[in-house]
Amino acid sequence: MLGRVRRALADVPADDTPYDMAVDRSYLPEHGDRTTAQTVDLLAENLADYRAIVHRTDEHGLAELLMRLLAEHGSRTVVVPPGLPPYWLKAADPVRIHDRAANTPDDLDRVDSVVTGCAVAIAETGTLVLDGSPDQGRRRITLVPDHHICVVHVPGQVVSSVPQALARLDPARPLTWISGPSATSDIELDRVEGVHGPRTLEVVLVSGGS
């Protein structure tokens, strides 16, 4: 396939119009005209439609809420990315499993929960994007544990559409796009969750702060 692409491009001059100029980008960057609050509400609605569990709080209530969510899930261990703000889990008492390269998939499979931040959240698609930043850790820690709590700061980390999200993201980073808990269906459309990622996704929308 790559050989066919190379052959098709063989006669393209080196000084041809750059791709970002040759492709028409005049399409609408988002659908509709929403206020900031309406955009956040749309994100919450679409996250819930994908069977994520959505919570709202502010910076002052975040630690208490995370403690309650971990307790309700019965989590005795939680994976902690290296740059997760310490105050997020100051009220929780599970054993912290720090994200290290030495942690094998089997090790992570025995962990009850993982708590991360996110890079950006897309309202129109109900999608969370993680880019491996310090508050999110490596991709594997959000794919193996059965329970993922993702913290999104609103409105700063929320955009309306995919084009707006792409403008914020670095394509060279390891991007993970999450739309609800992991799920698949067989030929009879029987839904099975937790096949290739967390069975339970909880999203905390935090107003105020960073």
UniProtKB/TrEMBL annotation:
InterPro entries: FTHF_cligase-like_sf, LUD_dom, NagB/RpiA_transferase-like. Residues 44-206 form the LUD domain. PANTHER family: LACTATE UTILIZATION PROTEIN C (PTHR43682:SF1). This is Lactate utilization protein C. It comes from Streptomyces monticola.
